Amino acid sequence: MKVINQKIAFISLLMFVAFIFSMGVRLIWVYQFNGYEAFKYAGQFMINTNDGYYWAEGARDILIGGAQKNDFSPIAEAPSLLTAFFIKILPFSFETIIFYMPAVFSSLIVIPIILIGHNLKMSEVGFLAALLASITVSYYNRTMVGYYDTDMLNIVFPVFLVWSLILALRTREKKYLIITALEIIAYRWWYPQSYSLEASFLGLLLLYTLI
Fold it and tell me: What share of the chain in percent tops pLDDT 90?
């Protein structure tokens, strides 16, 4: 039992360090441009994607109790719903939350990567992979602070799916497929356009079940 607790503590430490590293690299931009008023409105940084203002409109309308007729506000979409939820429970302004959400959510990618490394009995390799993956150029550019869009979780969910499938295959216990099914549902809720990727994972699920 002591050994298991030590392993959990070690893996948790790796996740924490990798998450802080990923966040820290993204906050460099804030440090560098903190004095540029052109990037701010009313003293707060502005988000920098067109789609972000669409999701923010939905979150705003949810908070005020609904959208106006025929304005096509995304009040039923996952990004707006999740944003409104965090705005309600966190003691930060609307602008601050939508600006930093991409950095926080995208940094969660280190968790499944480290778990994959742990399941393959290569925890240290998984840790290094998490550090590299969290700041790789293309991923960083679309998940930096202010890039408020669905991209902040569009890679995190599939990597969690890979982890749960590896866990099911290595343990040969079908109960872990429930985790995969829940992840597919969550991914579908977050990004409905992900149906092709979900179909491939579902195919792997069915194949594994049949075998």
Answer: 60
- What is the per-residue pLDDT across 62-93, written as a single tens digit (0 to 9) for each? 998 876 666 788 888 999 999 999 999 999 99
Q: Which helix (H) or strand (E) holds 209?
A: helix 195-210
Residues 158, 112: contact at Cβ < 8 Å? no
- Asked if residue 148 lies in contact with residue 106, where contact means CB atoms within 8 angstroms, the answer is no
- In the chain, the N- to C-terminal Cα span, in Å, equals 33
Entry pTM: 0.90
Measured CA to CA, the distance from residue 48 to residue 102 in angstroms comes to: 11
DSSP-assigned beta bridge partners for residue 41: 44
Please report the DSSP string for 11-29 in residue order. Answer: HHHHHHHHHHHHHHHHHHH
CA distance 16 to 13: 5
